[in-house]
Design goal:
- GO terms for molecular function: hydrolase activity.
- It comes from Stenotrophomonas humi.
- InterPro entries: AB_hydrolase_1 (IPR000073), AB_hydrolase_fold (IPR029058), Sec-Metab_Biosynth_Hydrolase (IPR052897).
- The protein is an alpha/beta fold and about 230 residues long.
- It has a single domain (about 5-110, about 160-230), classed as Rossmann fold (3-Layer(aba) Sandwich), CATH 3.40.50.
- It is about 35% helix and about 15% strand.
- The protein has helices spanning about 20-30, 45-55, 70-80, 100-105, 130-135, 140-150, 185-195, 210-215, 215-230; strands spanning about 5-10, 35-40, 65-70, 85-90, 115-120, 125, 175-180, 200-205.
- The strands form 2 sheets. The protein has a 6-stranded parallel β-sheet with strand order 2-1-3-4-7-8, with helices on both faces. The protein has a two-stranded antiparallel sheet with strand order 5-6.
- Helix 1 (about 20-30) packs across helix 9.
- The termini are close together.
């Protein structure tokens, strides 16, 4: 029996590595023993891609690289390493060369866009009082409250950082689309998922926080990618 690859999980804006907590436990149930969750600084695409590349470089064998939200842009930029065997996008950006997360967002503004505001230092925050309804309306109000309090704001300028050579052009990909997403418009997710020609698109009746509200389905998609690229 072949050993399972490592899974490297990449978070997006307004959250950290702990947003993957439920998926991590589901992957553990599926027999994955090498699971790593990157903690990105969210200061620039270059910084985040480099942090992700460094973690992938520590893995001696094959890697399934998974990105949620802006983490999809990060894995697109960082996923060309030889040991990355598959990319999995979870309600995520998948920009093409010369595109940015911000540019794609402008094509169809998400429902929660009015709830974002920069602070005096240039960090972009999601109003904590609006976090539950904006980001994770299919979780409990208490879970939304904690996510809002512990959110990790990106530098707003990161939204404008362009991808150079997207890894999804070179690696097999999978995409999970959230049909009730208020942070990345479902229309944008559909367009991106069609463009990258994934092995499969998994559509879930989910918020942006599908990794927390549907961890069983998300982990199963990651497992599918791992098995098909073994």
């Amino acid at each position: 029996m072949m050993s399972k690859p490592a899974v490297v999980l990449v978070h997006g804006f307004w959250g950290g590595a702990a947003h993957w907590a439920k998926v991590i436990l589901e992957l553990k149930k599926l027999g994955y023993t090498d699971i790593r969750a990157v903690e990105n600084p969210l200061t620039s695409l270059a910084d985040d891609a480099e942090r992700t590349r460094k973690m992938v470089a520590q893995v001696q064998g094959p890697v399934v690289l998974v990105g949620h939200s802006y983490g999809g842009a990060v894995i697109s930029q960082a996923g060309n390493q030889d040991n990355v065997k598959a990319l999995v996008f979870i309600a995520a950006f998948a920009p093409d060369a010369g595109e940015s997360a911000g540019g794609i967002t402008q094509q169809h503004l998400p429902e929660a866009a009015p709830n974002l505001a920069p602070d005096s230092d240039g960090y972009l925050w999601l109003n904590p009082a609006k976090f539950h309804e904006s980001f994770c309306q299919d979780l409990s109000p208490d879970e939304g409250f904690v996510m809002g309090v512990t959110q990790k704001a990106p530098l707003a300028s990161t939204f404008g950082d362009n991808i150079s050579d997207p890894a999804w052009k070179h690696k097999p990909s999978w995409y999970q689309l959230s049909t009730r997403d208020r942070m990345i418009a479902p229309e944008n997710q559909k367009a991106m998922s069609e463009r990258i020609k994934p092995r499969r698109v998994l559509s879930l009746d989910a918020s942006h926080a599908s990794l927390a509200s549907h961890p069983v389905e998300v982990a199963a998609l990651i497992d599918e990618a791992a098995k098909q690229t073994a």
